[in-house]
Amino acid sequence: MLESPVKKTVSAQEASPGTSRDATQEKSDEVKILSVSDLNEQIRGLLEGTFGLIWIKGEISNFKKHTSGHCYFSLKDSKSQINAVMFRGSAAQLQFRPTDGMEVVIRGRVSVYSPRGNYQVYAELMEPLGLGSLQVAFEQLKAKLAAEGLFDPAKKRPLPALPRKIAVVTSPTGAAVRDILSVLKRRFAGLDVTIIPTNVQGKTAAQEIANAIDLANRIAKASAQNAYEVLIIGRGGGSMEDLWSFNEEIVARAIAASSIPTISAVGHEVDFTIADFVADVRAPTPSAAAEIVIRSAQEFTDKIRTLRDRSALSMKRYLLSRQQLAQGLEKRLVDPKRKLRDLVQRLDELQGRLEIATVNYFERLRAKIESIRSRVDSPERKILRLRDELNRYGARMNTRAHNAVTTLRMRLETKVGILETLSPLKVLGRGYSIVKKNEEIIREVAQVKSGDSLEVILHKGTLDVTVK
Q: Is 440:434 a contact under the CB 8 Å cutoff?
């Protein structure tokens, strides 16, 4: 137990007469006096020994990431808060970016920061609570609807340039509806705008928003000639939980099924919902949706004035060009009699050239006929030429036949020589002989026995012998 130092003193006046110096001197109860650092160290040891590794949940507040990489923040609930720190090594492992208002679960240790005497949580691990599960649900639904083609840009419909009737699905008491109506009135007064009221936050909001979208489409179908031409769906800003109704699948499918072109106007510019991806057009804010859906009256006036000026200038340029063309044609216009005289003269020239060309053509044709006639042979000359060619051909054939016979004779002699070289008779000529027994050639002694008759073939003649 920590004790405060207590000091008891008896003064000289309070001492009775005759009391000794030792009796009157100061008396004290001695205790241990701690320094601030010692006290903080003891408190730190007490906290770390008592709590150890703990899990704690709360809402992030005053989050700050230092340039060193360390993260400093407070963790609070509805009644209290505690300082926390996550050092760079642990912060680098985070898979998300902590922000103020995010509810998280932290694993860490409770200790004291001695220089200031503040106790705080040293976080080692942080996981999102609530927001993390919503984010997972958002990504899963986004992937599912994208796979079904609900985000396909090819399905996006253009908005009409000047819609006559506009329907707005939103809360009738929120700031979004006031912003939309204010912008529409300022840009083009007198538009037919219908507010289809619905809750935009809470457990039943998603179903109510889908019902309102369906109601707008049913009204449009029932009154085809006076139907809504644009449908704005949205609300003002808020947290992810506040905007979650526009991330529900039922709302996304209602927007996709709408026959009216849709504008999603949910939250602020940095907020994105599933409705933004499904709608034909995404507006960053409800006010921006009103600016997108209709041009201002002044814009139409300026556009008409610009078109009028461009049309007048274009007509002026066209008339000027036609006038210049007429003047040019007038300058080139000639007297018809003069033109006729020119044509008569031109006809005479062409007639003279035709006569000359005809004479030249027949001269060339006559020369060609004479040339062909000179090259044509008489039958007698043709027979003589054919006979000469036949004689030359016979001589060539005789030469080729003689050469072929000579070549074949040489090949035959070569092969005969090879056969004679390989003939057994050549071997017999060198002193060898062939012994046969009943037409069987004897190659070893075991093939004969005493009394067998053998035939010995020599190079010249044969011998009949008997084995003894």
A: no
**Is the backbone of residue 204 left (phi > 0), alpha (psi -120 to 50) or beta?**
alpha
Q: Which residues contact 411 (CB under 8 A, 6 or more apart)?
A: none
Neighbours of 134 (CB within 10 A): 16
Task: Identify the sign of the CA torsion 444, 449, 451, 452.
Answer: negative
288-297 burial string, b = 16+ CB within 10 Å, else e?
Answer: bbbbbbbeee
Percentage of the chain exceeding pLDDT 90: 29
Q: Which of 300, 304, 254 is nearest to 279 (CA)?
A: 254
36-129 falls under which CATH superfamily?
Nucleic acid-binding proteins (2.40.50.140)
> What CA–CA distance (Å, rounded) separates 275 from 209?
11
- 3 state DSSP class of 310: helix
The residues, any chain, with a CB within 8 Å of residue 24's CB and separated by 6 or more, are 10, 11, 12, 15
Considering the four listed CATH numbers 3.40.50.300, 3.30.70.100, 3.40.50.261, 3.30.870.10, the one that applies to the domain covering 135-295 is 3.40.50.261
Residue 464 token pair = 């009949």
Burial of 303 (0-12, 13-18, 19+ CB in 10 A): exposed
**Per-residue pLDDT at 23:** 47
Q: What is the pLDDT of residues 299-349, one digit of tens each?
A: 767 778 888 888 888 888 888 888 888 777 767 766 666 666 777 777 778
